[in-house]
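Long-time lurker. I teach an intro course on protein structure, and each term I like to show students one example going from raw sequence to a predicted 3D structure in token notation. This year I'd like something fresh instead of my usual example. Would anyone be willing to generate the tokens for the chain below so I can use it in lecture? Attribution to the forum is fine with me.
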Amino acid sequence: MTTSPTTSSFGSKRSNFSLSDHDRQHHHQDLVGGAMLPIFLNDRNHNNQDLVEITLELNNDDDDIVVCSVAPVASGTSEEEETGPGMLGRSLSATSRSLRRTFGWLIRSTSSRTAASSNSGELTLQPREARRLKAKLQRTRSGAQRALNGLRFISKTTGPSDTEELWKQVEARFELLAVDGLLARADFGRCIGMADSEEFAVGIFDTLARRRRQNITKISKEELRDFWSQISDQSFDARLQIFFDMADSNEDGRITREGVQELIMLSASANKLSKLKEQAEEYASLIMEELDPENFGYIELWQLEALLLQRDVYIDYSRPLSAVSVAWSQNLSSFRPKNLLRSLNRSLNCLILDNWQRGWILLLWIVAMASLFAWKFYQYRNKAAFEVIGYCLPIAKGAAETLKLNMALILLPVCRNTLTWLRSTRARSFIPFDDSINFHKTIAFAIAIGIIVHAGNHVACDFPRLVNSSPEEFGPISADFHGKKPTYEFLFTGPEGLTGIMMVIFMAISFTLAASHFRKNMVRLPAPFNKLTGFNAFWYSHHLLGLVYVLLLIHGSCLYFVHKWYQKTTWMYISVPFLLYVVERSIRTCRSKHYAVKILKASNLPGNVISLIMSKPPGFKYRSGQYIFLQCPAISPFEWHPFSITSAPGDEHLSVHIRTVGDWTKELKRAISEGDHSISIVHQAASVAAMDQRRLFDQPKLFLDGPYGAPAQDYRNYDVLLLVGLGIGATPFVSILKDLLNSTRTAEEQTDSNTETSTLDSLSSFTSSCLTPNDKKKSQRTTNAHFYWVTREPGSFEWFKGVMDEVAEMDHKGQIELHNYLTSVYEEGDARSTLITMVQALNHAKHGVDILSGTSVRTHFARPNWKEVFTKIASKHPFSTVGVFYCGMPMLAKELKMLSLELSQKTSTRFEFHKEYF
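-- Reply from a regular --
Happy to contribute to a lecture. Here you go:
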């Protein structure tokens, strides 16, 4: 059979089929219309001994198929010469009449175009049969190979070797679950690896049992092997038939709306989508409306197959805001260095560009510590005490000098106001402010090492040698101890020894409770010691360090071998940083009293999240991406907790989204609920989708401190933004999206008021909508933003639903791309999510609304392919600088950082990675 499709002027397609004897015998099952058409053609072949060419016209607009012509194909030149025009015309006419008589489902088209061409013998199929033929032809052209990745029941790779390996695992689980050699129906899901989708697995079990004409509740290992071979079949048709049979309970080859609804409910249950399960009837009607426009009340296998094979068509149509541009070039070879030397050179340059700020800071710090250690070591090496105590003394004193430096430096990374101010200066170009907390931890580690070296040398070496020294050895240094040889009691209970011991105890407590396992409540201790874990323990224990600094000043002024005040340098190191920190805390205290805010509205959102809209204090200015501290005196007058600002700088209010996962946030939610005396509290429904919004009249008082700098506030320094948020980590980026949206709105208003100016403005990048006048005068560098929000709970999309809709409505130029990913749903292609994917794409294509997020942004399933994301952004924005901003759990940060470095080396696009954890 040969196919030669051509396109007509009115948008239809024609396909010419020329069948020989061999074609008719071996390909009759591939043609449409059951066995009728090939039998008819075969009869004509035997009777007339000629070839038949059928021209079909596929009209995409009217969804019909027209038989344009049926012509004999000449087998040789001699026959062509003998066949005159009249004979050919009579042959065509007879063939057309014979086609009409033989196929009762061929009728005249009622369209004017078909009527006009009826004299030439055109025939039109009934709508459903036409669509069946069209689906068959389209599948013939494309094949089902593209669909093999879909409808997977067990694994992405189900080749022969993979299937055998997986079967061994299934067999092992069978031995554990089987009773008397039989596997129960309820354990089928656990056995085949669908433990978290037992209801869906039971549906598969019942389907395969019906095929055996059995109504069973238990199966043997042989029957399990047969079931396994069917669900692991590589054939798309085989998997499609299983999927179809799951809804075709009466095995009549037809699925009604109730069957589709049942299949949707099974899929929703497997993916824990309770909201979708409640709306299964609505979406089943949507599928029936699409596949059964004639209202026959049922669909057949070929219709479900056509829907799945056209999945990409629906998805491509439904993803203008969430898909990458089809114009992106996938060829990155032009960006890659041509030889190994250039590749190494580029890698080295990227490595230096990514780490030079950290490098020079760490190098300067290490050189400073080494210099101070060497200076103090040399100084005590030449003292008389060295003859008595030996090298233990200069080593201990060298370590003490580094401790003074580090005790001073460790305060600087927590002076938030100072760092926020420095971020807005040119200092940000050579100081890595994003790593301030990491530097704080690094210094703390160096302090711990210094304490071990300093105190260890004193206790294990200096004190024993000093106490056990002979009178002759002690003589040169007796004046330092007022002529009296010290004892262990004197050394440990004296001012220097006692303050040293107290400092070690306080710092040991503070450092231990600041460790991540204690701070994040990962260590389980019995009561009452369980109070020593969690954020509160970390917060209060860190205040012991204030006493440590007081003890350090006393300790540094009671030295045995130094007597002149200007040689006691401890106060010189810590006085300025300590004073700066005290001033910072005083400013925070005074400012928080001035920045008392009122809660204008509170909303209970799904996923244990509360949204607070607060009044903006007079004179309060901030940038998108920054965060604030909140204090609720009704809960604790001492605790301050940080939250990212989700409102835009141009908004008239402040907003934050708070996830209630800790003691303080739970108490805040309770205080807000109890403070609302005007309206009783409405608890969330089981679906967690209902939102309880209320205006609070007697709300608890909140104090605000901030704003404080964060990595995302510098987003204007980049040509392109890649914003990645995990769960509640999307909050800092929502403010950025709002800011960009306000900028777009401002630009459009300027366009309406001044056409000439707007023509130039529209070609420029976003303009800033906030901050100082100087910032407003600057042209916004950012031209595009790609926002990826990855979450486990479908209810999370309710948090920022309004922002998503606004971006979709206002961003006419496609400068902001929004991508939602739901990881709790099985990845696209898994049989448990296949129908959900189709319902989602179909609903989005018809109504422009995503069934999970309720916005115009289509939701993807499973996790993003981050390498593909970076590659496409690099292809779309060559020779650009992309700011990669991540907020979430630390697990993903490493992968994003490695991809940023890798793609910066391989392409002309430079990726700069910034992270913040919650």
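Some talking points for your students: Residues 340-381 form the longest helix (42 residues). The radius of gyration is 38 Å.
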